[in-house]
Amino acid sequence: MTSAPTPRPGRTASGPRPSRIGEIVFASMCISLGLFAFIGTFGIRVPETNRVGPTVFPMLVAVLLFASGVAVLIAVLMGRLGQQEQSEDVDLHHRTDWLTLAKLVGLVVAHLFLIPIIGWALAAAILFGGAAWTLGAKRWWMALTVGLALCLTLQILFGELLGLSLPLGPALGWIAPLF
Amino acid sequence: MDNIALLLEGFATALRPEYLVFAFLGVLVGTAVGVLPGIGPAMTVALLLPLTYTLEPAAALITFAGIYYGGMYGGSTTSILLNTPGESASIVTAIEGNKMARLGRGSAALATAALGSFVAGSIATVGLTLLAPLLASLAVKLGPADYVALIVIAFVTVGALLGSSVWRGMTSLGLGLFIGLIGTDVLSGQQRYTLGLPSFADGIDVVLVAVGLFAVGEALYVAARMRSGPIDLIPITGGWRTWMTKDDWKRSWRPWLRGTAIGFPIGTIPAGGADVATFLSYAAEKKLSKKKGEFGRGAIEGVAGPESANNAAAAGVLVPLLTLGLPTTATAAIILSAFQSYGIQPGPQLFTNQPGLVWTLIASLYIGNVILLVLNLPLVGIWVKLLQIPRPYLYAGILTFAAFGAFAVNFSIVDIAILLVIGVLGYFMRRYGYPIAPLVVGLILGPMAEAQIRRALQLSQGDLTTFVTHPFAATAYLILGVFVVGGLWLRRRQRLFEDTMTAELAVQDAVTK
User: Which of B158, B183, B44 is nearest to B436 (CA)?
Assistant: First the structure.
């Protein structure tokens, strides 16, 4: 065994604690959402005939969200931070790689805009290939090939054979008459 | 008894060759996806839900039953063979299972887990068969105030008692309730929080939230801090044929039964399902074992008991789900939304309105269990291969499938955008230690809670005391009070237990190094 710290099963074996500022921002956003939900109830029109209108439950939810958000915020300010979730493939000792996250989010956005233009299979293949490459696949052409094979299979199986309406796009339009 | 006749009828349907194929496929795909590291049961069910959209209700239910049991079992294979901590329900299995695998007894660990799952799953399904119709006939008498009490119990146990922080759980619950509010109010026809956007008018689809939180959120969470280096997989020696010795059998059968006895009741009450059950079973086995010294070093009882408890709880969770329409775990919440998408409304009337479908579902649970056993042991080699999938491809695949699932809901790209936003939320929730399950449960039960509250107040003409004066509701709140105190105590015990566990393991590792 190497001397590198090997994480063990068990929730207490977490690595470094999450950043305090991030926690404060997240809790504050939950509080703001609670406020928004509360103010939003005044924008809901209440029909006069209803005894219990459509605003009662939203108010309860808003109060719950606001109060629990405040409780979390107080706990964080007192130094009790959350326990980061563990997962098989996560190394909590690594620093957060924001660039990778931004690339993945960008790829999903590109995917959704590409579907109407080039069809589902190709747009999904780009998402798969791009994501695999971003995450460290060694050969980008391999990632793209696997993506193409996978997404074409899905397109044919679900789009053509099982009847989900996945757009084929201009490049693959010739497939439709085959099935 | 006509229930037995109905069950036999269910078997007659579920055993038809075309349905057997669906059951087989469901178990196979469910296990395969469940085995994949980073994918827990809830994510398995959420990701595979769109695959059942194209099937007719009976076939979809049968496939789904297979996916549920397969996904439940798949996680234990992962935790036994992979030397990294995973999702919480299989943490306990990982403690002993992982040590056994490292001692070269991996196939024995897998075998006792598979057999235990089968025994527990079968007994618990019998329990479900006997208990569910009984409970359904009682549940018909419940009024709206009683339902409110049950939902409040589910909220408090899932939100406050599970997870490491009460207020983070409640915040997560609040977020789920809020997302559930978005859309058009059914009773008054008013739009709420839609910001005038037409995409929000029908509300946000549960599938989008579940897939976004579990699949996209997890993929982003892993991507940000991916474990580098080779995959730490423990090789299986000897194949599955040399699985369990006579001694292993002797040490396993009692834990299987005890695990079932602990898991099933805990699954049926809204106490958080498998998570608590596995921990209690492990503690019980450790206490009862004559070989206490072996615990922490690969004791087979520590795999047999918790694994059985896990599967028995999985079947137990279906009792309140089918009879009351009350999901008590994130996985159950997703199953409920799946049922609704097939046009089935779980609840007390289900057994009288759609007996054919329910009994087919219950029959297919028995069948799925058998298929699971038949498939699992011989296919261990394939599961091991699945664990070796290069991580970039695995998470790229999860992301692609998530986008596919979101698009398949309405064939609208707006849904993929919503999926992404919820995925980012899921990322930050994981990062800051907010549990995901309360959000999903809140999202599903929120609209139900509101409808029942309004109905109760309508009946009582606005008198708020209606919520506590019904005998059933009053008892329920009383039990909840006991739960909260007991649950908090149990959680402290669990944390202490895990702390000593980690300390013990650290000491042992220092010795073995």
Answer: B158
The dihedral through the CA atoms of B451, B456, B459, B465 has a sign that is negative
B334 near B45, Cβ under 8 Å? yes
Instruction: Kindly identify which residue of chain A lies nearest to residue B186, measuring between CA atoms.
Output: A54
Q: Give the amino acid at A62.
A: A
A47 closest CB neighbour out of B188, B223, B394: B188
Residue-wise pLDDT for B119-176, tens only, equals 999 999 999 999 988 888 888 888 899 889 988 988 888 887 766 788 999 999 999 9
Nearest one of B255, B257, B262, B258 to B316, comparing CA atoms: B262
Burial class from Cβ neighbours inside 10 Å (0-12, 13-18, 19+) for residue B14 reads: buried
Q: Between chains, do B170 and A71 touch, taking CB under 8 Å as contact? A: yes
* Tokens at B56, concatenated: 């007719």
Low-confidence ranges of chain B (pLDDT < 50): 513
Question: Is B354 touching A (CB cutoff 8 A)?
Answer: no
Neighboring chain A residues of B434 at a CB cutoff of 8 Å: 82
- Give the HSE-up count for residue B220: Cα atoms under 13 Å, Cβ half-sphere: 31
Distances (CA, A) of B358 to A77, A100, B49, B67, B327: 50, 46, 19, 17, 16
pTM given for the model: 0.86
Give the separation between CA A39 and CA A28, rounded to whole angstroms: 16
Rounded to an integer, what distance in angstroms lies between the CA atom of residue B177 and that of residue B251?
46
pLDDT, one tens digit per residue, over B431-469 is 998 988 899 989 988 998 999 999 898 888 878 888 888
Q: According to the 3-state scheme, what is the secondary structure of B20-62? A: HHHHHHHHHHHHHHHHCCCCCHHHHHHHHHHHHCCCCHHHHHH
Spell out the residues 6+ positions from residue B208 whose beta carbon is closer than 8 angstroms to its own: B406, B409, B415, B418, B419, B422
B465 touches chain A (CB under 8 A): no
Q: Using an 8 Å CB-CB cutoff, list chain A residues near B394.
A: 89
Q: Which of A1, A65, A81 sits opposite B174 (nearest CB)?
A: A65
Asked if A89 and B164 come within 8 Å (Cβ–Cβ), the reply is: no
A14 pLDDT above the threshold of 80: no
Give DSSP secondary structure letters for B369-423. HHHHHHHHTTTHHHHHHHHTS-HHHHHHHHHHHHHHHHHHHHS-HHHHHHHHHHH
| Contact (Cβ atoms closer than 8 angstroms) between residue B338 and residue B49 | yes
Q: At B192, which helix (H) or strand (E)?
A: strand B191-192
Q: Give the integer Cα–Cα distance in Å for B195 and B512.
A: 61
The number of beta carbons lying within 10 Å of the beta carbon of residue B100 is 23
Q: Which of B192, B427, B449 lies closest to A44 in CB terms?
A: B192
Q: Please tell me the predicted confidence (pLDDT) of residue A2.
A: 35
- Residue A127 to residue B221, Cβ atoms within 8 A: no
Cα separation of the two ends of chain A:
56
Place of tokens 């059914």: B186
Cα torsion angle, B452, B334, B480, B484, sign: negative
Q: What is the pLDDT of residue A117?
A: 92
CB B88 within 8 A of CB B65: no
Q: Which residue of B has its CA nearest to A146?
A: B393
Tell me what ipTM this predicted complex has. Answer: 0.88
> What residues of A are in contact with residue B411 (Cβ under 8 Å)?
164-166
Is the Cβ pair A89, B193 closer than 8 Å? Answer: no
Query: In chain A, what residues touch B403 (CB-CB under 8 Å)?
Result: 108, 111-112, 124, 127
Measuring CA to CA, which residue among B17, B92, B1 is closest to residue B367? Answer: B17
CA-CA distance, B384 to B48, in Å (whole number)? Answer: 21
B126 Cα to chain A: minimum distance (Å): 33
How far is CA B133 from its chain centroid? 22
